[in-house]
Structures are given as structure tokens and as C-alpha cells.
Amino acid sequence: MGKILVCRLVVWALAVFLGLSVAASEVLDFDSSATVVPAFLWTDQRCSIKEGRSIDYQVQSPESLGNALVDKFVRPATESSHGSDEVPPEIIVVFIGNKLRAVDISRTDELASSDLLKMLERLVAGSKYSLSIPYVSIRKDQISTAETLVSVLHRELGSLSRMGEVAVSGSCSVGKQSIKRLAGVPDLKAYLETRKETRAHGETDVLMVCYTPYLDRTAPGTSVSEGRALNEVISNLRSSGTRHVALYTSDPKGATEGHLTISVRHLIDSASGNETTGCDAVCHSRARILEGVFVAIVLITILVSGLCCMMGVKTPTRFELPKES
């Protein structure tokens, strides 16, 4: 009876150990897949930011980032009195890259000195009002940053009765929202000129640009960097005279691809000249964890079975002397 009790205790202890191991692997997988990226908001028009340059060190989510954009750059001008010099923007442009992370800002290697960071530094420094958010956390179980921001802006601008048209360019996945699809940066200039004539009074449009190497289609087969593509978008906005608020943030490929269907991912990779594979970084990490769990289950099963078999063997407590013939 005592041996059976000991065997059960061993089985329970190993089961608890296995459960804790699986839970720990899930936590590690969550932490390793979470991505922290920076965000920069800037504008040349009056807004609620008292200082010309502001920094918010709190960890934000894509949803809170969209709320901050509206609360600081749109809502005060909309709700202010007619005598105020704050004017609501005509368009909110969101540029989503796929490389820059929060840790890259303080680095001194080639990425930190890239044209993207130089361009962002010039745009923020050249604006009247800006807000920098170093830490925007993107989890693997979230929908894409583009879809989150479109949903938040649509809700918040709708509550202010300012929601205009949503235009999307690049590889953005924005869910079931009603949008106007632009082929690339060259279509942006014509779109801005058209909206100047067709935009209803009091409306604020949303332009979502998700970077791909072939975003600029004026030179077919030639890829452009994020910095150049961002510069083209902002230059077109300024030349059109459209009052705007700009937001740059990043949604690295590993955090975004998991929310796209296989067909969409294939189209994006084909357009960028990359070879598609059947398993990305997130897929490989999950596969390794599952392999470890399966191996652990097999080894623990063998161990428990061996211990129970050994404890089930009944050996005599004493041996009789051989009988003399």
C-alpha cells in the first residue's frame, strides 16, 4: 500500500513539473515574440501640446497610440472655441515601417545611422509640435498595427463627427473597413489634389501607408528605402498645402505576417522579390517549443512507467536456507 502511494506521489509531482514547464515556455514565447517599437507624431499646426517637443516614456499599445494622436492633435482643435487659433487637420497620415525597433534608436551601427532615422530626425526637428513615444509594445496575439490604428481613428473621429475617407497604400491589412486603395506613392499627389476639391467641410481623412520596398512605382523593379518613401509622402503633403498630422511607427515583419492570410503574404513577398517560405520566425519558435514538449512528455512517461514497475515488483523479505539432501 505504501509503495502505491509513493508511486502516485511521484506521478503527481511529475505532472505538476510538466505543467509548470509548459506554462514557463508559453511565457518565454510571449516575451520573446513581443516587439517594442518607437513612434513619432508631429505637425505644423497649433495643438494641445504646450511644449514644442514632448516625450512620453510610458509603454503604449497601438490602440493607446491612436487615442493619443486624436487626444493631443485633433480633439482640442475640434472642441475649442471659434476664436482659438487651433485648426483641426484635414488629413492624418500614418506611415508604418517594418524595421525600426526601440533598441535601434540608441545603437551606433549602420542601422542607427540609416537614412530613415536621419529623415525622422529632420521631420521632427523641423515641425512646430511633436510627440515622441519610445516604447510601443506589439504582441503576437494582436491584430496588425495598421488595422488597430484605422479602427481607433475611425471610432474617435466618428465621435467628433469628423470622419472622412480612409486611403491605404502598400501592404496594409485593415480588416473590413471601407477604404480607397492607392497603388503607390505616385498616386498620392493626385489623390491629395482630388480630396482638396471633394473633401466636405469639417472632415478629416486618414491616409495609411505601409512600407514595402516597391512602394514607389515610378521606377519599376527598383526598391526604395523607408527613409526615401517617407520623404516622398511628406513632401507631397506639404506641396499640396494640406493641413496634416503625421505619425510614424514600425510593425516589424515577424509581428505583422502572422495576421495576414497565406495568399496575402504570398502576394506581398512576391511584390518585394522575396522567396516565400512555409514557416516564418514565429512558426519556427512554436515548432521548437512543441518539439520540446513532446520529447518531455515521452521521457516523463518512460520515467514514471519505470518507477511504477520497479515499485510494483514484490521481493521477498527473507530467503530460506537450502534444504539438506
Structure description:
The structure is a single chain. The chain is of the alpha/beta class and 325 residues long. It has one domain. Helix content is 46%, strand content 17%. It contains ten helices and eight strands. The protein has helices spanning 2-33, 62-73, 75-79, 115-125, 145-159, 186-198, 226-240, 253-256, 262-271, 281-312, and strands at residues 35-43, 53-55, 91-97, 129-138, 163-170, 180-182, 204-210, 244-250. It has an eight-stranded mixed beta sheet, sandwiched between helices. The two termini are 39 Å apart.
Highlighted features:
46% helix; alpha/beta; 17% strand; 325 residues; single chain; signal
What are the SSEs and their pairings?
Blueprint: H1 2-33, E1 35-43, E2 53-55, H2 62-73, H3 75-79, E3 91-97, H4 115-125, E4 129-138, H5 145-159, E5 163-170, E6 180-182, H6 186-198, E7 204-210, H7 226-240, E8 244-250, H8 253-256, H9 262-271, H10 281-312
Parallel strand pairs: 2-4, 3-7, 3-8, 5-6, 5-7
Antiparallel strand pairs: 1-4, 1-8
Helix pairs in contact: 1-10, 2-5, 4-7, 6-7
Subcellular location: Membrane
Signal peptide: 1-23
Main location: membrane
